[in-house]
């Protein structure tokens, strides 16, 4: 059971890592187009959309890389969790205002539109995966500490 | 436990700050231009230097109104049938689906120094961006894309023309 938990933890960590590394990398390639997607949310003032587009993909990429390398996993989980909560709040606001936009979650120039509703469902799943990874990490760490003492 | 959470939160903040710093280092020119309202100038420089991958600049509804008031030309990238049914008042039709046929005439009529704002059927519609790239390649230097497009303009109650 303990071994299974450990395997599931590593699989969940790698899945999260790939999602965030990919999301960050594709948006870093096309910052201007991503700024257009951020502007579509109609939440931030004009120039702030560019600030978010310039910084957010790099944070996603860095957090994803740490998860991939199994380094500073819990701080990386807090960072991706905080970002996912922000995305969910933005998507709820889009749905509440009835805006019909592409979420801009991944490739900003990809032309594959994902509605706010679908993106929100996906983010809820992602949040569940983040919480599960955190819990499994705590379990395995506590067990390792018990063994050492 | 509390100390542990404090340390993890602090490390998460450092991670976010490092990521943001890295992003700002890579894109400082774009961010500075956005905050100083000079986004058009570097775009012009990029095009003049013929750097591959130059992109049109996205603009919002309020800016479209200001820019058209100061002489920018609105360009409708949708197909001719949609243009005929309804378009932004004052916009000219330049359908991306017929670009090879209609571009020569457009080049004759519209000066390359003119500021252009391209739109199509709203967010998620790629035609305005694609047309923007084509017009940059054709030599136009001030290309913006209004991603809200015709639906956002119409829904804001602004003037439209066409058969309705």
Protein described:
The complex is a heterodimer of chains A (149) and B (164). Chain A has five helices and no strands. Chain A has helices at 2-28, 31-40, 46-68, 73-97, 116-148. In chain A, helix 1 packs across helix 5 and helix 4 runs antiparallel to helix 5 (116-148). The two termini of chain A are 21 Å apart. Chain B is an alpha/beta fold and 164 residues long. Chain B folds into two domains: 1-38; 40-161, Oxidized Rhodanese, domain 1 (3-Layer(aba) Sandwich). Chain B is built from seven helices and seven strands; from the N terminus they run H-H-E-H-E-H-E-E-H-E-H-E-H-E. Chain B has helices at 2-36, 40-48, 61-69, 80-85, 99-109, 127-137, 149-155; strands spanning 57-59, 73-76, 87-88, 92-93, 115-119, 142-146, 160-161. In chain B, strands 1-6-5-2-4 form a five-stranded parallel beta sheet. In chain B, strands 3-7 form a two-stranded antiparallel ribbon. In chain B, strand 5 (115-119), helix 6 (127-137) and strand 6 (142-146) form a beta-alpha-beta unit. Mean pLDDT of chain B is 83; it is low at 40-52. The chains are: A mainly alpha (149), B alpha/beta (164).
What's the layout of helices and strands?
The complex is a heterodimer of chains A (149) and B (164).
Chain A: H1 2-28, H2 31-40, H3 46-68, H4 73-97, H5 116-148
Helix pairs in contact in A: 1-3, 1-5, 2-3, 3-4, 4-5
Chain B: H1 2-36, H2 40-48, E1 57-59, H3 61-69, E2 73-76, H4 80-85, E3 87-88, E4 92-93, H5 99-109, E5 115-119, H6 127-137, E6 142-146, H7 149-155, E7 160-161
Parallel strand pairs in B: 1-6, 2-4, 2-5, 5-6
Antiparallel strand pairs in B: 3-7
